């Protein structure tokens, strides 16, 4: 089993991280006090524990309610820049070398910001965070994924925004929110537009709802990646552990190398997995799916990329070779151009593991 510090020292790639799910408790408390937003508790340490407890209720709906407080403190240019800057600094400090951070611009307009103004603010925050990390000796590339809320009707507008900014730090599009009752097919016009524009997108699917959500995301909408996708395990027959059998959908996902953006701690909190030790990541990795490891919401799960990998190392006995495999999988699946992905793999990710071995740790 690897230690947290050992894991923190190797390069990691993060594809599924929510900006409003990774705000520092201190930042939430300070901005809330300034703008007069009432929090359930005021002390930052207690607030961090409150977010984790509330998010650990076992239901996705209750989990999503915690975002009312983080979104409330991200409504101005100043506050969005701060949150975005701190996000990049925190990820770089954890050894993340590439991150795609998603957020929903439509949720940040109550104080007068426009959609473009909000995206510009996050872009500025990412630039400041990248520069601050470099001054501390850390290198990180951070990009935005713009999310539309699946229970709203602005997905085409947000998709157009993502395309407009794809040469300015935005690499993709996503839909998020409660899955039940809001299938991805409600947003076909947005996905068809993205296809016409040769743009990348991922879809939250297969977390709370199951196989129909995954099937629609892939076969109807044409998603490049599956946000979570953990419930694909429902199409894998493991009654004979020595010879698991894949259903048609699971086989298609594996054959097409469709990346799974698995978020172990978050999946346990929302009830998609019973525990880390029982998380399908072990089986899916053994079967050769394109598995990636992610944080989802660092505040709500009180986690980091290093912690997620440490939990998997403890549960499944993973060593550095396994963590490198997860990291290379993620970099292969990133929404960067191919040459940039290849350069990151060859020049940053692999060397960060090749210079270390279990014998020297």
TrEMBL record:
Active site per database record: 207 (proton donor)
Recorded superkingdom: Bacteria
Enzyme Commission (EC) number: 3.5.4.4
GO biological process, one term: inosine biosynthetic process
UniProt keyword annotations, A-Z: Hydrolase, Metal-binding, Nucleotide metabolism, Zinc
Signal peptide: none
Enzyme class, first EC level, given as a word: hydrolase
Note on how the cofactor is bound: Binds 1 zinc ion per subunit.
One of the Pfam families matching this protein, by short name: A_deaminase
Gene Ontology CC annotation, any one: cytosol
Cofactor list: Zn(2+)
Ranges where the Adenosine deaminase domain occurs: 11-350
Binding residue positions for Zn(2+): 16, 18, 204, 296
Binding site for substrate: 18, 20, 177
Recorded catalytic activity of this chain's protein: adenosine + H2O + H(+) = inosine + NH4(+); 2'-deoxyadenosine + H2O + H(+) = 2'-deoxyinosine + NH4(+)
GO molecular function: 2'-deoxyadenosine deaminase activity; adenosine deaminase activity; zinc ion binding
Site (Important for catalytic activity) location in chain: 228
Keyword Hydrolase appears in the UniProt entry: yes
PANTHER family found in the cross-reference section: ADENOSINE DEAMINASE (PTHR11409:SF43)
UniProt-listed NCBIfam families: aden_deam, PRK09358.1-2
Role this protein plays: Catalyzes the hydrolytic deamination of adenosine and 2-deoxyadenosine.
Family, as annotated: Belongs to the metallo-dependent hydrolases superfamily. Adenosine and AMP deaminases family. Adenosine deaminase subfamily.
Annotated protein name in UniProt: Adenosine deaminase
Lineage: Bacteria, Bacillati, Actinomycetota, Actinomycetes, Propionibacteriales
Gene that encodes the chain: add
């Amino acid at each position: 089993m690897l230690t947290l510090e050992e894991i923190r020292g190797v390069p990691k790639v993060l594809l599924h991280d929510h900006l409003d799910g990774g705000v520092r408790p201190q930042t939430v408390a300070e901005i809330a006090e300034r703008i007069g937003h009432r929090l359930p508790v005021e002390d930052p340490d207690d607030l961090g524990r409150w977010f984790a407890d509330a998010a650990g209720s076992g239901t996705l709906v209750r989990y999503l309610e915690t975002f009312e407080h983080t979104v409330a403190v991200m409504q101005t240019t100043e506050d969005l820049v701060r949150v975005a800057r701190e996000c990049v600094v925190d990820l770089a400090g954890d050894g993340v070398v590439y991150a795609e951070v998603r957020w929903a611009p439509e949720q940040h307009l109550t104080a007068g910001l426009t959609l473009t103004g909000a995206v510009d603010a996050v872009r500025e925050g990412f630039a400041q965070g990248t520069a601050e990390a470099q001054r501390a000796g850390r290198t990180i590339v951070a990009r935005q994924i713009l999310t539309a809320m699946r229970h709203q009707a602005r997905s085409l507008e947000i998709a157009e925004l993502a395309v407009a900014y794809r040469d300015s730090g935005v690499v993709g599009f996503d839909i998020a929110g409660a899955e039940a009752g809001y299938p991805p097919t409600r947003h076909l016009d947005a996905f068809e537009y993205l296809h016409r524009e040769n743009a990348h997108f991922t879809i939250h699917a297969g977390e709370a709802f199951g196989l129909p959500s995954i099937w629609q995301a892939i076969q109807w909408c044409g998603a490049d990646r599956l946000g979570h996708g953990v419930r694909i395990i429902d199409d894998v027959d493991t009654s004979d552990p020595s010879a698991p059998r894949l259903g048609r959908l699971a086989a298609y996902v594996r054959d097409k190398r469709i990346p799974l953006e698995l978020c172990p701690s978050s999946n346990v909190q929302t009830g998609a997995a019973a525990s880390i030790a029982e998380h399908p990541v072990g089986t899916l990795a053994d079967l050769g799916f394109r598995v990636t490891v992610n944080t989802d919401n660092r505040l709500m799960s009180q986690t980091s990329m290093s912690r997620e990998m440490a939990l998997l190392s403890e549960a499944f006995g993973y060593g550095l070779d396994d963590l490198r495999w997860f990291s290379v999988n993620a970099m292969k699946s990133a929404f960067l151009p191919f040459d940039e992905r290849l350069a990151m793999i060859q020049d940053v990710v692999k060397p960060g593991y090749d210079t270390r071995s279990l014998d020297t740790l």
